[in-house]
């Protein structure tokens, strides 16, 4: 069924990115949906007049999302963005190699979403649209493995003369490429996980700060009420003591009972306010703990950035070494080619000499 839809759909935009899905259990952590960067494309189905985002890893569809006008692509960092798919009940995250690729994908997402909204409005008005939206798809840079791909094997035409590069050099280059790709993948995933965790902590911290400010304002108000209640309680206690002292010369027993009841109510209210103040104080302790967690997350993010800088430096050194090796190999290939050409000339001269000798022998 998936291949059948792909046949009648037209790709309008493609980009390479690391694909993630939100953890369905925690709704906070990201789970990698692909081991390496894969192609993520926008497709337009002219028959159904819908737009879809599709990404395939091997024979498995990693993303199969229909774009709706209510979707929003959010940039959570310089190289990471996400959007929610209510139909699949999940959130997709994309990690790009550069900030420019993220901006291009975000702009295309907004453009396709607007086109989907217009298509829905035209469908509601029962107007048939037969022309597909034409969107120019810029060419994205290929993966690092494509950039580091080895040159083709050089062959020399001649009787049983074929020249192959050194197998040990190919094995070294291949292992070096795999190591670089692994370092890049680990560094990108670690950085995105720390950024997502920091974003969650910042959101929780802002909510807790707002609640703490509101609680502090309430505490000040409750302290004033508590002081007023305490004054009222002291005044009532003095009246009760005065009544007990004067005995039958004061107000009636009914007034004494009313004063006693009011005193009990005020004491119960004071107790409730004390409990609320205790709860607010415990929330303040939780706020300090959240601040500590946020500082730790920021520290981990800085460490990750330092590790990424070190990885980039090592990758640059490795690329320089690879370029030097390739230049040296090209130079050796050129020298070997010149030697083969000279050898071909010598073989031709020997063959000519052999034919001359054969003619002399025949005479």
Which overall shape is indicated by the principal axes computed on the Cα atoms?
elongated
Which stretches are low in confidence, meaning pLDDT under 50 for 5 or more residues running?
Answer: 1-7, 127-167
Q: Number of helical runs?
A: 5
Structural class: alpha+beta
Overview of the molecule:
This protein is 63% helix and 15% strand. The chain is built from 5 helices and 8 strands; from the N terminus they run αββββββββαααα. It is α+β, with helices and mostly antiparallel strands. The termini are far apart. A hairpin with a 4-residue loop joins β7 and β8. It is elongated and about 165 Å long. The N terminus is likely disordered. Strands 1, 2, 3, 4, 5, 6, 7 and 8 form an 8-stranded antiparallel beta sheet that branches.
Sum this structure up briefly.
This protein is an alpha+beta fold and 363 residues long. It has helices at 2-8, 99-124, 144-147, 167-246, 253-362, and strands at residues 9-22, 30-32, 38-45, 50-57, 60-66, 74-75, 80-85, 90-95.
């Amino acid at each position: 069924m998936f291949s059948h839809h792909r046949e009648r759909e037209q790709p309008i935009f493609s980009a390479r990115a690391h694909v993630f899905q939100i953890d369905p259990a925690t709704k906070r952590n990201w789970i990698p949906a692909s081991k390496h960067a894969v192609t993520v494309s926008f497709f337009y189905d002219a028959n159904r007049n819908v737009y879809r985002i599709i990404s395939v890893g091997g024979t498995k569809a990693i993303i199969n999302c229909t774009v709706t006008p209510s979707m929003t692509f959010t940039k959570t960092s310089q190289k990471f963005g996400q959007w929610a798919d209510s139909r699949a009940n999940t959130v997709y995250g994309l990690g790009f190699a550069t900030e420019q690729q993220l901006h291009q994908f975000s702009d295309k997402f907004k453009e396709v979403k607007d086109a989907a909204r217009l298509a829905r409005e035209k469908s509601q008005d029962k107007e048939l649209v037969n022309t597909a939206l034409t969107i120019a798809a810029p060419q994205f840079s290929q993966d690092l493995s494509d950039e580091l791909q080895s040159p083709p094997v050089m062959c020399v035409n001649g009787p049983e003369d074929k020249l192959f590069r050194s197998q040990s050099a190919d094995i070294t280059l291949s292992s070096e490429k795999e190591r670089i790709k692994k370092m890049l993948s680990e560094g990108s995933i670690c950085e995105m996980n720390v950024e997502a965790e920091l974003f969650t902590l910042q959101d929780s911290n802002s909510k807790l700060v707002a609640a703490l400010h509101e609680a502090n304002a309430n505490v000040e108000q409750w302290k004033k009420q508590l002081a007023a209640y305490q004054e009222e309680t002291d005044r009532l206690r003095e009246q009760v003591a005065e009544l007990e002292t004067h005995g039958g010369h004061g107000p009636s027993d009914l007034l004494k009972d009313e004063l006693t009841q009011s005193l009990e109510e005020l004491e119960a209210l004071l107790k409730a306010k004390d409990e609320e103040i205790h709860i607010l104080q415990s929330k303040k302790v939780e706020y300090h703990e959240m601040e500590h967690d946020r500082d730790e997350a920021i520290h981990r993010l800085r460490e990750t950035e330092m590790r990424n800088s070190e990885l980039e430096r090592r990758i640059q050194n490795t690329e320089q070494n690879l370029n030097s090796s390739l230049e040296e190999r090209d130079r050796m290939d050129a020298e070997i080619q010149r030697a083969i050409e000279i050898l071909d000339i010598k073989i031709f001269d020997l063959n000519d000499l052999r034919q001359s000798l054969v003619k002399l022998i025949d005479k």
